[in-house]
Design a protein that fits this description.
- By secondary structure, the chain is of the alpha+beta class.
- About 40% of the residues lie in helices and about 10% in strands.
- A hairpin with a 5-residue loop joins strand 6 and strand 7.
- Helix 3 crosses helix 7 and helix 8 runs antiparallel to helix 10.
Length: about 325
């Protein structure tokens, strides 16, 4: 009995002083219409007129980026690993043992290279296309009732930009135009295309960053699913919980620029490096976003913010 009194006076009373517990007595049936009306009134302020030029610039930059990368790929081939997302710009891949492959394969092994495509450099990120920001949350049974469009295009659409079929099919058009123009390009024209492409890359990422300050976007914490809107959808497509009989729901958090425009970091070969990057020199080699590395090979000058990552003036690997 004495022990109970001691615990009560010295433990539970201290907890009651530090933490207060409140009961919720409000009626959600009365509050729900008020909340929905407030959301609808907030949506009337969108799109913001000052952000419409930014959204249009992002769409133009995306068009120039895809067309420029498609043209540069005719001169600088890329390879991708057969068992993991690793990408390398060059005719032959490197020998750095960073392949994590499938579950049945050994970890940190040499990559098995195959020919890559534009989707390996510009990673396609799609999201549901909403008619308006204040519409109801998409349920699991409604997942086939909404179109899937590129997440950047959906962000620009909610920002007030004019979306046409050309913005949705620009990848195929960029590949066709690149194939026709690649045969008659000189070194000067190639350098000009590389510079325009790297400027489009920076404009795209900077514009998306500005739009994300104003327009909400969500990304799943456990997978790469992106949703542009004030709240995520309820389509059970995550599949992170293995114990569930069906794929689970997403756990949403605020999206960043890298979620909508993934940079796809690759190993970069410098002039002082060997023709084929070796595993023994992996601590000396630099990295760069795949688009930036491709443009520098075409003659463009990389922005100074990438110099630390690229190790431009770094030492070469050990001589074997």
């Amino acid at each position: 009995m004495a022990l109970r009194k001691f615990v009560w006076h010295h433990v539970f009373k201290d907890l009651n002083r530090q933490y207060r517990f409140y009961s919720w007595k409000a009626d959600m049936k009365k509050l729900r219409p008020m909340i929905l009306k407030r959301i609808e009134n907030r949506a009337k302020d969108y799109p913001i007129q000052a952000m419409i030029p930014v959204a249009n610039d992002v769409l133009k930059a995306r068009t120039f980026l895809i067309q420029g990368v498609s043209t540069l790929l005719k001169f600088f081939p890329i390879v991708t690993c057969k068992f993991c997302p690793e990408v390398y710009i060059g005719e032959e891949g490197h020998l750095i043992q960073t392949c994590h492959g499938f579950k049945c394969r050994a970890k940190n092994t040499t990559h098995e290279w195959i020919n890559g495509s534009i989707n390996d450099l510009i990673v396609p990120v799609q999201s549901f296309h909403l008619q308006k920001m204040s519409q109801n949350v998409i349920t699991h049974n409604q997942r086939f009732d909404f179109d899937r469009v590129p997440a950047v295009v959906e962000l620009c659409s909610q920002a007030g930009a004019d979306i046409t079929c050309q913005n949705l099919q620009v990848i195929a058009e960029g590949e066709n135009n690149g194939a026709e123009e690649a045969e008659s390009l000189s070194s000067t024209d190639l350098c000009s295309i590389a510079n325009r492409t790297i400027r489009a890359w920076e404009t795209l990422r900077n514009g998306v960053e500005k739009l994300l300050f104003v327009y909400p976007a969500k990304v799943c914490k456990y997978c790469s699913e992106v949703h542009v809107g004030p709240s995520g959808h309820k389509a059970r497509l995550c599949g992170v919980f293995k114990f569930e009989s069906f794929r689970g729901s997403h756990l949403w958090k605020k999206a960043e620029v890298d979620d909508l425009v993934p940079p796809r970091i690759v190993w970069r070969r410098r002039p002082q490096d060997p023709p084929v990057l070796l595993n023994e020199g992996r601590d000396f080699y630099g990295h760069a976003p795949a688009v930036v590395d491709l443009c520098t090979k075409g003659g463009a000058i990389a922005p100074s913010k990438y110099y630390c990552m690229m190790k431009v003036q770094g030492l070469s690997g050990p001589v074997l």
